[in-house]
Write a structure and sequence with these properties.
This protein is mainly β. The chain folds into 2 domains: 120 residues, Sandwich (Immunoglobulin-like); 154 residues, Jelly Rolls (Sandwich). Helices cover 8% and strands 45% of the residues. The chain is built from 2 helices and 21 strands. A hairpin with a 2-residue loop joins strand 3 and strand 4. The protein starts with a helix and ends with a strand. 31% of the residues are buried. The N terminus is likely disordered.
Length: 283
């Protein structure tokens, strides 16, 4: 056999490894569930964390939902950091890390071909200023009636409520509109490196507009209801970023408000809200 033939035969044995190199077997990590523990004097611990932003050994792996293992090309014991991801303003296009929840940190053993599980527990950061915590337990901050037609009242309903009592407004032909704000104004930072958020749980038969009412300091007000909540038969929670409204209409004080109208053809519609929080980092 000629030398060139020996070379071809030998090369054919090694070329398989070059063309199809052996691939690394990944380890897998799975988020089983999320939980949230409210710190004292911070209201309800109900949450709507959608995804966990996962960092392994300071490397961002991605954002993941519970119940779906994801691969990690690492082997050994590593620090895992998870940050809470929410759908800002209730929009489900993409998640955003919620800045007011602290990071969850744990240690995980990553073994190729095996699934490690974690159940991240979150809580609020300890440097938050809670301007408003409204739980509708037999009293309410929402007493400034701004309605043009009728005079619907906020009542306190336990049956069908979210946690204990919830705020309830019933729209009728005699009271076809609600536009109500807090009696108290809040001095929110108009220039800030961090955003101001409004958290709210709601269940409603009609769309609701939610936002702020800015005061000019001389009795005049500007309504900034920049976010809408769609009708839903089930209780939902949203995290609304109101910083753009604040930046667009600087004001010495802001009230929190919401409004809705009875659609044509309906004779009654019920709105229920609970656990309204307005929060920003302590300046």
């Amino acid at each position: 056999m000629k030398p060139i033939l020996y070379f071809i035969i030998a090369f054919s044995f090694f070329s398989c490894d070059i063309i199809n190199p052996e691939e690394d077997i990944p380890a897998f990590l799975e988020i089983e569930s999320f939980s949230f523990n409210a710190i004292p004097n911070s209201g309800s611990n109900m949450h709507d964390i959608k995804e966990g932003w996962v960092f392994v050994d300071n490397d961002l792996i991605g954002a993941f939902v519970p119940g779906k293992p994801f691969p990690i090309l690492k082997e050994g014991t590593f620090e895992v950091v998870v940050q809470a991801g929410i759908h800002e303003d209730g929009i489900s296009v993409a998640t955003k890390i919620y800045p007011y929840m602290d990071r969850y940190i744990t240690t995980v053993d990553l073994v190729p071909g095996e699934i490690a599980t974690i159940s991240p527990e979150f809580e609020y950061r300890d440097n938050i200023d809670f301007f408003l915590i409204e739980e509708f337990e037999n009293s309410t901050f929402f007493t400034n009636d701004r309605s043009r037609i009728g005079n619907p009242e906020v009542t306190f309903e336990e049956i069908g409520g979210f946690e204990g009592f919830s705020g309830k407004i019933v729209l009728t032909p005699d009271n076809p509109e609600v536009n109500i704000a807090t009696s108290q104004g809040f001095a929110l930072p108009t220039i800030s490196s961090s955003d101001t958020y409004l958290e709210i749980n709601f269940k409603t038969e009609v769309p609701i507009a939610v936002g702020l009412v800015a005061s000019d300091g001389f009795g005049g007000t500007t309504q900034i209801y920049a976010n809408g909540l769609n009708a839903t038969p089930e209780w939902k929670k949203v995290y609304i970023n109101v910083q753009e409204s604040i930046a667009n209409v600087p004001s010495p004080a802001y009230q929190v408000g919401f409004g809705a109208e009875l659609p044509f053809g309906l004779t009654e519609a019920t709105i229920m809200v609970d656990n309204i929080k307005l929060l920003h980092f302590i300046r």
